[in-house]
């Protein structure tokens, strides 16, 4: 058996072992064609099948109603920060953004380069320790859209109740929590996610949107940055990141085999409960960095008050085989990313390590 690390990396992140093994088995000779996916045309029937099937699987797993289209794009979620306003924030209009931390703020920064931005709600005054309640989010009926960040990967806060925006299209950056739990897709007009946290490897970004939003981009938007270019070409306008899409395909099949998104949520809650309990039962030795009702089931942020002890924790954790526990430089402290593919055993081992470290140092 391959030696697998306790991988808590924030992104790129752990992939299911079963998926890696299947990719390995098909690496050199994909289904008897004598070539790998990376060596064939994106216009071949083999790749077209992967392209179509992956879109269908995503729709099936998310329970997407009729009238939505999936795109596989490049440039990461970061490029969507620009593409969304370029395509949807037309001159004279305003878009609302909810400021909940690092990623939301990056999206806001890009949108401001392109058009009028209004801050619909901000938790900056609370140090981004919580998500705003739907009632705190002011939505103007004339806005082009409202943009939220479903899960703040760096801060460790996650929306557990989405705002109701009425006729105003709701757009969500779900890069770090897509498919971690069931959602009502009909509430959203556009959902996007870089694949490298919860969907597969880096290189592809998924955009799922109402067809009418993708149908016609403003005239002056460059070809590659237009949603209508990619929608009309079924994500085959230019050479797609074929291997990444193939990997997403395998990850989606893995989720399906696990029982779908509801089963995955149950699994994620069991996993994260283990770690949150280690924090909550530590009598204050470990401190969560966010409010309980905004806690993320994908990125768990925590601290040890004594700085020297925190350093010691990270050092010993690394020696014990735990990878990626150092918090993002903007927040510091610790972060355990517990995406769908992170096995329960990794979380149980971390909880045990935390309790043991506390026994020895508390
Ligand atoms: C990682 C991340 C991004 C950036 O993704 P890239 O694919 O690296 O551009 C954007 N938003 C969120 C919420 C993320 O977690």
Strand order of the largest sheet: 2-10-9-8-5-3-4
Average pLDDT reading? 97
Domains, number: 2
Name the CATH superfamily classification of the largest domain.
Type I PLP-dependent aspartate aminotransferase-like (Major domain)
Please name the CATH architecture of the largest domain.
3-Layer(aba) Sandwich
Predict the CATH topology of the largest domain. Answer: Aspartate Aminotransferase, domain 2
Strand content: 15-25%
Pick out its properties.
10 helices, 7-stranded mixed beta sheet, single chain, 2 domains, 14 strands, binds pyridoxal-5'-phosphate, Aspartate Aminotransferase, domain 1, Aspartate Aminotransferase, domain 2, alpha/beta, 362 residues, 3-stranded antiparallel beta sheet
Explain how this protein is built.
- Its main location: cytoplasm.
- Pfam families: Aminotran_5 (PF00266).
- By secondary structure, the protein is an alpha/beta fold.
- It folds into 2 domains: 240 residues, Aspartate Aminotransferase, domain 2 (3-Layer(aba) Sandwich), CATH 3.40.640; 102 residues, Aspartate Aminotransferase, domain 1 (Alpha-Beta Complex), CATH 3.90.1150.
- Helices cover 36% and strands 16% of the residues.
- The chain is built from 10 helices and 14 strands.
- The strands form 4 sheets. It has a 7-stranded mixed β-sheet with strand order 2-10-9-8-5-3-4, with helices on both faces.
- Strand 6 and strand 7 form a beta hairpin.
- Helix 1 crosses helix 7, helix 2 crosses helix 7 and helix 3 runs parallel beside helix 4.
- The longest helix has 20 residues.
- The chain is globular.
- The model has no long low-confidence stretch (mean pLDDT 97).
- Pyridoxal-5'-phosphate binds next to helix 3.
């Amino acid at each position: 058996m391959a030696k697998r690390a306790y991988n808590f990396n924030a992104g790129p992140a752990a992939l299911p072992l079963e998926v890696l093994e299947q990719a390995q088995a098909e690496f050199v000779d994909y289904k008897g064609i004598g070539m790998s996916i990376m060596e064939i045309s994106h216009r071949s029937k083999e790749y077209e099948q992967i392209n179509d099937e992956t879109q269908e699987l995503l729709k099936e797993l998310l329970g997407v109603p009729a009238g939505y289209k999936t795109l596989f794009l490049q440039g990461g979620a970061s490029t969507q920060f620009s593409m969304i306003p370029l395509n949807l924030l037309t001159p004279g209009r305003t878009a609302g953004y909810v400021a909940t931390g690092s990623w939301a703020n990056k999206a806001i920064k890009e949108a401001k380069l392109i058009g009028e931005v209004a801050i619909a709600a901000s938790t900056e005054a609370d140090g981004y320790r919580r998500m705003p309640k739907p009632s705190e989010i002011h939505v103007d009926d004339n806005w082009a859209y409202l943009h939220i960040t479903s899960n703040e990967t760096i801060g460790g806060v996650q929306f557990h109740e989405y705002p109701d925006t009425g006729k105003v299209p709701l757009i969500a950056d779900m890069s770090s929590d897509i498919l971690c739990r069931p959602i009502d897709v009909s509430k959203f007009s556009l959902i996007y996610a870089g694949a490298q946290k919860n969907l597969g490897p880096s290189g592809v970004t998924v955009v799922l949107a109402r067809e009418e939003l993708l149908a016609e981009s403003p005239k002056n938007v460059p070809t590659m940055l237009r949603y209508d270019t990619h929608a009309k070409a079924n994500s085959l306008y230019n050479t797609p990141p074929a291997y990444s899409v193939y990997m997403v395909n395998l990850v989606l099949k893995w989720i399906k085999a696990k029982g779908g998104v509801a089963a995955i949520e149950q699994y994620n809650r069991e996993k994260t409960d283990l770690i949150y309990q280690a924090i909550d039962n530590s009598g204050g030795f470990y401190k969560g960095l966010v409010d309980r009702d905004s806690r993320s089931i994908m990125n768990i942020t925590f601290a040890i008050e004594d700085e020297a002890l925190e350093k010691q924790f990270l050092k010993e954790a690394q020696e014990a085989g735990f990878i990626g526990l150092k918090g993002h430089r903007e927040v510091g402290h610790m972060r355990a990313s517990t995406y769908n593919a992170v096995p329960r055993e990794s979380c149980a081992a971390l909880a045990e390590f935390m309790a043991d470290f506390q026994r020895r140092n508390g």
